[in-house]
Design a protein that fits this description.
Layout: H1 3-19, E1 27-32, E2 38-45, E3 51-55, H2 66-69, H3 73-76, E4 78-82, H4 102-116, E5 122-126, H5 128-140, E6 147-151, H6 169-182, H7 187-201, H8 208-219, H9 223-229, E7 247-253, H10 261-270, E8 275-279, H11 286-289, H12 291-310
Parallel strand pairs: 3-4, 3-5, 5-6, 6-7, 7-8
Antiparallel strand pairs: 1-2, 2-4
């Protein structure tokens, strides 16, 4: 190799640690979850900063939070995300018993926290992930948690309230068709189901790269796992009292039918200290479509929750 090229490579290798901040370098590895299920974990951020543990939504994965993992949040906070069982690069058991017990999900979270050294993270649960956050609180309590943020969801902590203004008949028809297709092992059917699913996450067209990633993640959940995933309990009204011991926030898009004003009012009635941040015009994935505003709201909450936990 030409001596000039060798010298250039040497300079790049020496300078690389200074050109790329260690706070934004991600590390991915496997952790053994409950029952031996391998869980794909990603960590990044400031090792000494307040901690955030992201829990993704149904048919998605840790990489759904790319705009948080790769953002300025990583300069201040220690961030961990993992693919839930049945999703993305984690293990995919077929038995219903691997999904219908809150304790199983809670122990997955606990094992990830232990393996990554998390002490008192804020749990950030998007949609289905809010149920997993509730599973952890149900099983292990609040001692090792600073706060909980529910994104596009209310974690089953309130009774069901219908969406404000109801559901568009066309959207309802697409959801019905999607559910029919998802049980099929046909690639064509899975692809069609995914084409119907992704618009439910965003308003469409905001970020084609993120939407392409979402398509890929949705196709990584095999049909034999989808039905067992639906067996996860969704009623957490019996443990809503635990939220009195935590900082609690809901972040949602104003166009997201998953969070109704009735539901928010019911949750605030039993959790008076509830914080709510509404992203006007956003849908079910505000962290993807409005990352700057989302990240700012999340950072402010996590700082406050961490500081209160230190007292």
């Amino acid at each position: 190799m030409n001596i000039f090229i060798k010298n250039i490579f040497a300079v790049i290798l020496i300078a690389l640690p200074f050109l790329i901040s260690p706070a934004v370098l991600a590390n991915s590895f496997y952790v053994e979850g409950e029952g031996g299920v391998p869980l794909a974990v990603t960590t990044t951020g400031n090792p000494d900063g307040p901690e955030i543990l992201f829990l993704h939504g149904l048919s998605m994965g840790a990489s759904s939070f790319s705009k948080q993992l790769e953002s300025e949040l990583a300069e201040e906070f220690r961030i961990v995300a993992f693919d839930l069982r049945g999703h993305a690069f984690s293990g995919k058991p077929s038995e219903t018993s691997a999904y219908d017990n809150p304790e199983v999900w809670a122990k997955d979270v606990a094992r990830v926290m232990e393996a990554t050294g998390l002490q008192r993270p804020t749990l950030v649960g998007w949609s289905y992930g809010s149920l997993v956050a509730a599973d952890y609180l149900r099983t292990f309590g609040t001692a090792k948690t600073s706060g909980i943020v529910m994104v596009g969801a209310l974690g089953g902590f309130t009774p069901f309230f219908p969406p404000d203004g109801g559901i568009d008949p066309m959207v309802l028809a697409n959801i019905t068709r999607m559910r029919e297709l998802r049980g099929s092992p046909s690639f064509a059917n899975q692809r069609e189901a995914t084409e119907l699913f992704i618009p439910l996450l965003t308003e469409g067209g905001e970020d084609l790269e993120w939407e392409a990633r979402a398509h890929q993640l949705a196709l990584m959940v095999p049909p034999y796992v989808r039905e067992p995933l639906q067996s996860h309990p969704m009623d957490n009204t019996d443990i809503v009292g635990l939220l009195a011991e935590l900082e609690v926030m809901v972040i949602h898009g104003s166009r997201d039918p998953s969070v109704s004003q009735g539901g928010l009012a019911a949750l605030r009635a039993v959790v008076p200290h509830l914080k709510v941040h509404t992203l006007q015009g956003a849908g079910h994935s505000p962290f993807a479509t409005r990352p700057e505003e989302f990240n700012e709201a999340l950072a402010s909450f996590v700082r406050s929750a961490f500081e209160k936990g230190q007292k």
